[in-house]
Amino acid sequence: MVLSLSLNGTQLIAFKDKQLIKVVTGIRRCWKSTLLEIYQNWLLEQGIEKEQIISINFEDIDFEELTDYRRLYSYLKERLVPGKVTYIFLDEIQHVEDFPKVVDSLYIKKNVDIYITGSNAYMLSSEIATLISGRYVQIEMLPLSFKEYMESTGSMTDRGVKYTCCQGYCKPKEDHGYHDAEKCPAFCV
């Protein structure tokens, strides 16, 4: 899939290098992490060097030790690239206790561009919003539309035919090995 995850990808591009914390919110499984990965690849294509990008997903046990805000801050500070913008992606940041302290400390540094994701309920709580108030922009992700989903999984012309031309009578062959030729006007699987 290309960066054109509709409006969300263009919003990230529009806010690139702006002195704002980019907060990507949305329900579980709505592709927030994927959006950040696509955006990171786009940054690389634009000439940003790999060492300028720091990406941490706090659902990955490899980063469990960084859920302590002091360790996280130290880890990130050590990896800032002098004289160049460092792009920091903190996915599922709500797993870090007192994470606003880290985000605030990074926010006041020069050449740091911060992107965070988290659950809607936690990220939009009044306490968190107050702590980073006036310093962030929210980019709300919605689940993919049917069209976006179909485009991300292949051709729009052949995918829907599998499931619609038989009016629900036959199942995809790869799933069940079943095709009811009497009820189906075409061999669609």
Spans of 5+ residues with little confidence (pLDDT < 50)?
A: 1-5
End-to-end Cα distance: 24 Å
Helix content: 25-40%
CATH topology of the largest domain: Rossmann fold
| DSSP helical segment count | 9
Kindly provide the radius of gyration, computed on alpha-carbon positions and rounded to a whole number of angstroms.
21 Å
Would you list the SSEs in sequence order as H and E? Answer: HEHEHEHEHHEHHH
What is the CATH architecture descriptor of the largest domain? 3-Layer(aba) Sandwich
- What's the rounded overall pLDDT mean? 77
- Tell me the β content: 15-25%
Strand order of the largest sheet: 2-3-4-1-5
Sketch the major β-sheet: 5 strands, parallel
- By DSSP, the count of extended strands is 5
Number of domains: 2
CATH first level of the largest domain: which class?
Alpha Beta
Shape: globular
Alpha-beta content class: alpha/beta
Main attributes?
189 residues, alpha/beta, Rossmann fold, 2 domains, five-stranded parallel beta sheet, 9 helices, disordered N terminus
Question: How would you sum up this structure, described in words?
Answer:
- The chain is an alpha/beta fold and 189 residues long.
- The protein folds into 2 domains: 6-144, Rossmann fold (3-Layer(aba) Sandwich), CATH 3.40.50; 155-189, no CATH class.
- 39% of the residues lie in helices and 16% in strands.
- It is built from 9 helices and 5 strands, in the order H-E-H-E-H-E-H-E-H-H-E-H-H-H.
- The chain has helices at 6-14, 32-45, 69-78, 99-107, 120-123, 126-131, 146-153, 156-164, 173-176; strands spanning 21-26, 53-57, 86-91, 112-119, 136-140.
- It has a 5-stranded parallel sheet with strand order 2-3-4-1-5, with helices on both faces.
- Strand 3, helix 4 and strand 4 (112-119) form a beta-alpha-beta unit.
- The radius of gyration is 21 Å and the shape is globular.
